[in-house]
Amino acid sequence: MMSNEGYSDRILTCRDCGQEFTFTSGEQEFYASRNLTNDPSRCPSCRAARRSGGGGMSSSRPRQNTGEYYETTCADCGRPTSVPFIPREDRPVYCSDCFQAHRTSRSGGRSDSRGGGYSSSSGGYGGGGRSGGRDSRGGGRDSRGGGRDRW
């Protein structure tokens, strides 16, 4: 049983809805037992909505979409395209049509999307180089047998 010694209920303001909520002494003791040093910034209902996908960024998304796109030219067809990343001089960037063509030709009939390169709805990086973005040990695997090499 928790003792709640040294803790007293505190009133906090939710950063999403602006409503005040109580950070109870029991919750404070729980946070302390888990070495959580920051107070909650959302009320329980906004926290629940965020967890259920009602707001904010899901943990399954790898990056935040800032809405910023960069204009560039497709390395294959020369058509102007826009991409959600800063193009680098040393990597070819393809429009979505050319990227799909490169991806299917590299995959050799595989159904997964681990063919290397960057994919987006409007364009992406190509595999580039002799090895198609994979290591030279074959199969596109690192020495542990799973995943892709880091670059």
Question: What would you say about this model in short?
Answer:
The chain has 151 residues and is an alpha+beta fold. It has helices at 25-33, 44-51, 96-107, and strands spanning 10-13, 20-23, 70-73, 80-83, 93-94, 124-125.
Keywords:
6 strands, 19% helix, single chain, 151 residues
Strand arrangement, major sheet: 1-2
Using the alpha-carbon principal axes, give the shape.
elongated
Radius of gyration: 24 Å
Major beta sheet summary: 2 strands, antiparallel
Strand content: 5-15%
Helix and strand composition category: alpha+beta
List how many beta strands DSSP finds: 6
Report the total helices.
3
Helix and strand run: EEHHEEEHE
- Quaternary state, please? single chain
Low-confidence stretches: 111-124, 127-143
User: How far apart are the first and last residues' alpha carbons, in Å?
Assistant: 50 Å
Helix content: 10-25%
Q: What's the overall average pLDDT, rounded?
A: 73
What does this 3D model show about the protein?
The chain is α+β, with helices and mostly antiparallel strands and about 150 residues long. About 20% of the residues lie in helices and about 15% in strands. The protein has three helices and six strands, in the order ββααβββαβ. A two-stranded antiparallel sheet has the order 1-2. It has a two-stranded antiparallel ribbon with strand order 3-4. A two-stranded antiparallel sheet has the order 5-6. A hairpin with a 6-residue loop joins strand 3 and strand 4. The chain is elongated, with a radius of gyration of 24 Å.
